[in-house]
Write a structure and sequence with these properties.
It contains three helices and four strands; from the N terminus they run ββαβαβα. With 135 residues, the chain is an alpha+beta fold. A hairpin with a 2-residue loop joins β1 and β2.
């Protein structure tokens, strides 16, 4: 396990710091693997909820900005060899991050209807006539 400022991972007092240390730890593994063919890691890093439990002001915000900047720098330097995907509830706190998809409570990727509701709606549509030939 990583050691941070002389403290073991289990002695860290903040869940936000734990998240950032975890990200730094897996990024370090990727860096080693990119430069040492004897380390077999897929060149894909998926990070979910990078800002979870991290504050959005003061020192926490600065730490989060530095983490995103480090990820951006790594992704830019190794663009042909490493893919980094980050999912988060908040927008990145720095410029230059490519956002492939942004969802919200009003713009969801997954439909809000349950499968039962979808089935009943499609049955109603099929009894109303041919969808390809409206009346």
């Amino acid at each position: 396990m990583p050691v941070v400022d002389g403290r073991s991972f289990s002695d860290l007092q903040s869940q936000g710091v734990e998240v950032l240390v975890n990200v730094a730890h897996v990024l370090a593994h990727q860096q080693v693997a990119l430069h040492d063919d004897a380390v077999p890691l897929p060149n894909l890093l998926i990070i979910d909820g990078i800002s979870s439990n991290v504050g959005h002001e003061g020192t926490d915000l600065e730490r989060l900005r530095k983490m995103y900047a480090t990820l951006l720098e790594t992704a830019t330097e190794d663009v042909d060899r490493l893919q980094i995907i980050v999912t988060d509830n908040d927008s990145p706190p720095i410029d230059g991050i490519h956002r492939a998809l942004e969802l919200s409570d009003t713009d969801r990727l997954v439909p809000t209807e349950s499968p039962d509701e979808q089935g009943s709606n499609s049955e109603e549509a099929s009894t109303d006539g041919d969808a390809n030939n409206p009346a």
